[in-house]
Amino acid sequence: MNRLSNRIESIEESATLAMAAKAREYKSRGIDVINLSLGEPDFKTPAHICEAAKKAIDDGKYFAYPPVAGYQDLREAIAAKYQKENNVPYKAENIVVSNGAKQSIANVMFSLINPGDEVVVFSPYWVSYDAIVRLTEGKPVMVNGSIENDFKVTAAQLEKVIGPKTRAVIFSSPCNPTGSVFSKKELQDIAAVVLKHKDLLIIADEIYEHINFSGDQLSIASLPGMFDRTITVNGFAKGYAMTGWRVGYIAAPKWIADGANKMQGQLTSANSSISQRAAFAAITGDIAPTLKMVEEYRKRREIVYALLKEIPGVKANYPQGAFYFFPDVSSYFGKSDGQHTIKDSDDLCLYLLDKAHVSLVPGGAFGDPNCVRISYAASENDLKEALKRIKETLSGLKQNQAQRAVVA
Length: 408
Ligand code: GLU
Hints:
Blueprint: H1 6-9, H2 15-28, E1 34-35, H3 47-59, H4 72-85, E2 95-98, H5 101-112, E3 118-123, H6 127-135, E4 139-144, H7 155-161, E5 166-172, H8 184-195, E6 201-205, E7 230-235, E8 248-251, H9 254-267, H10 273-284, H11 288-309, E9 324-325, E10 335-336, H12 345-355, E11 358-359, E12 361-362, E13 372-375, H13 380-395, E14 398-399, H14 401-407
Parallel strand pairs: 1-11, 3-4, 3-5, 5-6, 6-7
Antiparallel strand pairs: 2-8, 7-8, 9-13, 10-14, 12-13
Bound molecules: glutamic acid.
């Protein structure tokens, strides 16, 4: 009777959302949890964007179903942004606006992947890539970037895993969870590999485009020959502090945009009319509030990096974008406070939530079980306090007696 489909049984709950829910539950019990699990700006949506939404309600014109792919003016504005800022000649016909970039990715995967098709996922990866591919009954093929190479997968590594069933490659840059940013040269090398295989597509997730401290942002779709091979994913959540408004989009060759449009037409129809008016104000309006937020993130990156370096046994790369650290904490696995021995990163995250009242996300959900993800989209005070608590709690973990005996 109570039987869910194999499809839904085969995937896990989103780890980012699960840890955020746990943190909320602790908070509701009156526990002072610092939540560094969810990748969510702690800033409010800029005022001019909120004003546009209020005006849209008062105008009384935006109560009806919008076109499935989004309002024409919003799609034109997104295309114009890509022409001007990213050097990609998208037109409105290439754009589909969805309920967050997550739906954009799902629309694309369901439009392109047949059961058994392979999708190469650069790992560490954002949690939902893996689950969405499996929902389509495609097969995710993980390729691991090493911490020594700033977690970035190389073109040579990509080349090795491409086979006759490979349909697409997906990655994010700036990367969630590692903060790494691919350089122009690295993207050119990846593009060269993709172009060698005639049916291969690349899904480039640029949702953290604005939060990039490297000055090296480049859309792979702008490289020669790549327009026809790339699905660019982006959205308003991170750059404009609009997570709750749920506006993401793809920019893609028309046949893929048409597929995504058809998919969305059967599942959700268009994104909310009012959110789209807010997004239009965001993309055509003053970018100064975004730049201010980015400067704050940059400061916080320095603070967290310095504090992480003070914690013995924690190995962190220096992220170039997004708002995450993805440190290797595996030196604590097997250590004990006398009562509890840390098994792995899932266990360490639960331990830190319980003892330090800090919520992080285990690295396994992002493809690297040696790591944990720390979101620094939180206030400086919270970050300093959280890192202090983590350091103190970890300092109470020692190699346990049995292990010491083995080592001796
Ligand atoms: N993308 C954010 C994160 O990675 C939001 C949560 C989610 O949708 O996974 O934390």
